[in-house]
Amino acid sequence: MESAGRSGLRLFLEVALLAFCCRCCLSGECPADGRVWETFGNSCYHFVHGKEDVAKTYTIEKAREMCHGYGLLCINSEEENKFIVKYSSRVWKDTEDIWLDMYFDPDNDTLVWQDQTPVVYTNWEDVDDLTPMDTCASADSSSGKWVRVSCEDSYKRVVCETKQVSENAAKRGNSQLLSVLVILSVVVILGFSTAVWFLSQKHSFAPTLFTSFEYHPPFRSPKSDETTLVEAEETEAVA
């Protein structure tokens, strides 16, 4: 009984550990498209460094094409800005500005991110005298300072950015399916352990039951045996 209980407990722990490892594998993944992606916070970053194209700097339209459907760089905190500066020095030997995924919104008369979210964190160096309708933005890869530039500028580096794929609905569906499988496994393990325990209890109870009810033949009086013997002898004598 004890060995069966231990086996059930060990099996339960193994299933729980497998579920935990699988959930870790499903979370925090960057696109598997053959390119190198770096992670920071909940985002993935790809630094375009010339091996994918002859040119090393691009117009903002070409930069978006290079990202293959993913967005350009959006910086939302000082920590993220420092990360970009630090990692840029590892990828690029020289210093260039990086396109920011920002454009001028004439309705609100301000710069906003391409995904329509407001610009909360900024690190502007100076205000340039550019026509607002022709204003884009870039970040210096060495200092991290932002500058307003012309959208027609063609000498900018490219950093692609996207959210980690753990937020994808398909991943969430796989995670939910895994949870259901774990629950079913636990139910099966508990049912198996209960059945083993019941059978072990039944086998240990059976010998005790039969020992308590030993068979004893009915009591017979010695006098009745003698009377039967005498009657048998008299019958033989008459014959």
From TrEMBL:
It comes from the Eukaryota. CDD domains: CLECT (cd00037). Residues 1-27 form the signal peptide. Residues 220-239 are annotated as: Disordered. InterPro entries: C-type_lectin-like (IPR001304), C-type_lectin-like/link_sf (IPR016186), C-type_lectin/snaclec_domain (IPR050111), C-type_lectin_CS (IPR018378), CTDL_fold (IPR016187). Keywords: Disulfide bond, Membrane, Signal, Transmembrane, Transmembrane helix. The chain crosses the membrane at residues 177-199. The keyword Transmembrane helix applies. Residues 40-160 form the C-type lectin domain. PANTHER family: MANNOSE, PHOSPHOLIPASE, LECTIN RECEPTOR RELATED. This is CD302 antigen-like. It comes from Scleropages formosus (Asian bonytongue).
